[in-house]
Amino acid sequence: MSRTPICDFVKAYQQQKPLRLHMPGHKGQVFTGPEAADITEIDGADVLYSAQGIIRESEQNACELFETGRTLYSAEGSSLCIRAMLYLIAQEARRQGRRPLIAAARNAHKVFVTAAALLDIDICWLFPKTPGSVTACELDLEEVSRVLEERRPTALYVTSPDYLGNCTDLHALSELCRKNGTLLAVDNAHGAYLKFLPASRHPIDLGADLCCDSAHKTLPVLTGGAYLHLSGKAPAQLLEQAENALSLFASTSPSYLILQSLDQANAYLADGYADKLADASLMLARARAELTANGYQITGDEPLKWNIMPKSCGWRGDELAAWLVQKNVWVEFADPDNVVMMFTPETSAEDVHQLVKWLCSVPVREAINEQPPVLAEPVQAMRPQEALFAPQETIPVRDAVGRVLAAPSVTCPPAVPVVVCGEQIDESAVRCFAYYGIENCCVVKK
C-alpha cells in the first residue's frame, strides 16, 4: 500500500489536541463536519508549490503510480493545471525566440480560452471533421499534420476524453507532434482512471508531454483535487518550472482537506484499484449492451461514461434527465441531444441494474429528427486579449449579431464556449446560443 504522509501528519496533529493559534478561524471546532482535519501550512505540514517535505513525498507517490516524469497536486482543479500548462508552453516558445502559438481542438474548456487571452497566446483553432455538438471535436489527422507543418505551433492542445466520452487518437497525434517538434498538451480532466485500465490509455503513456487530470471527477477525491502530469521525455525546463507555473495562478491558502484526499487516493489506487476498475468496466459494458439492444444510442468509447442520445427513442436529452430525477437519479449533464452519466467502481451493481431497468421502462415515442445547429467557422475580429480587457456590456444573444464577444458565454457543465473572445457573433452562433439555452452574452462595448 502506498504511504499517506499528509494524512498521517494530520492524524498525529489531531491526536495531540493542540491549542490552534493559527488559521483557519474555526480552530478545529465542528461547524459543518470536517473542521478538525482542516489545517493550514503549519510547521511540518509542508508548503504546496514549494514542497520539500510530506507534500513532496505524497506527490512522488502519485508520480510513481502514474509513471510520469513529475506529478504535482492542484487543490483548485484542472482549471489551475490548464493555466499552468499554457504558461509553460508560452515559456517554451519564448525560449525558442518565437511568439506563443497553440493549435487547439475547438471543444476546449473556457479556462483554456481565458488563460490563452491572459497570457497573450495566439490560437489556431482546429474544427471537427463533421458538425455536431460543440462539446465534441473529432480531428482530421491530415488537417492536423498540415497545420503543424505550416503554422509550426509550440504545442497541440486537445481535450481527451471530451465531455461526451470521446477519446482522441493520442498516439497518432503524439507521432505527428514528435515529427514536427511540437509539444502535445492534453486536457485529461475526465480520464484520471485511464492509467489503471488493463492497457493504459492515459495521455502520458500515449505520448503527451503534459496533461491535467481532475482526480475528483473519476477517483474518490474531494472536489478540486487534480494532478498536473509531465512526461519524463518533456523538455527539462518544463519539469523544472512546473511548480512555479502552478504557484503563479494558485491561491496561497490551498485546502488541506483536498491535499489529504489526494494523498489518500494514492493508497486507494495502489491497493487493488485496477482489479476493481476492470470489474466495473465489464459490468458497465454488459449493461450498456443491454440498453443498446433495447434501442438506446450510446456514444463515446470511455468505459466509465455513457452518453445516451435519446432522440431516436423520442426523448430530448434534458427531458429524459428530468424524468430520471423523478426516480432520484441525477446525471452529470444533459442538453437537447445528450444525457451524460459517469460511473466509478464505487457505483454498485445493484444501482446499475436498477438504472437499466428504469431506462428500459421509458415509453418509446416517435423519433425526434432535430439536429444541433451548425456553427459557421467564426471570424476573429480582435485579438483575444484585446477583447477580454476591452470595455464590455451584456446583451441578449438575439441582439448580438455582428458584435464581438468579450468573454466566453457558457454554462458549466460543459463549459465549452460556442464563440470565444475576440470572435464576431453571426446568425449561426445566435442559433447555437439559443439551442443550448444561453440567453445573454458579454460583448465588446461600442
Walkthrough of the structure:
This protein has 14 helices and 14 strands. The protein is an alpha/beta fold and 446 residues long. The protein folds into three domains: 5-270, Aspartate Aminotransferase, domain 2, CATH 3.40.640.10; 273-360, Aspartate Aminotransferase, domain 1 (Alpha-Beta Complex), CATH 3.90.1150; 384-444, Molybdopterin biosynthesis moea protein, domain 2. The strands form three sheets. A seven-stranded mixed sheet has the order 1-7-6-5-4-2-3, sandwiched between helices. A four-stranded antiparallel sheet has the order 8-9-11-10. A hairpin with a 4-residue loop joins strand 10 and strand 11 (339-342). Helix 3 crosses helix 8 (236-249), helix 5 (141-151) runs parallel beside helix 6 and helix 10 (273-293) packs parallel to helix 12. The longest helix is centred in the middle third of the chain and has 21 residues, at 273-293. The chain is globular and about 65 Å long. 46% of the residues are buried.
Briefly say what this structure is.
It is built from 14 helices and 14 strands. The chain is of the alpha/beta class.
Helices, strands, pairings?
Blueprint: H1 5-15, H2 54-66, E1 70-74, H3 77-95, E2 101-105, H4 110-118, E3 122-126, H5 141-151, E4 155-159, H6 170-180, E5 183-187, E6 210-213, H7 215-218, E7 226-230, H8 236-249, H9 256-270, H10 273-293, E8 298-299, E9 305-308, H11 317-325, E10 333-334, E11 339-342, H12 349-360, H13 384-389, E12 392-396, E13 405-407, H14 427-435, E14 440-444
Parallel strand pairs: 2-3, 2-4, 4-5, 5-6
Antiparallel strand pairs: 1-7, 6-7, 8-9, 9-11, 10-11, 12-14, 13-14
Helix pairs in contact: 1-9, 2-9, 3-4, 3-8, 5-6, 10-12
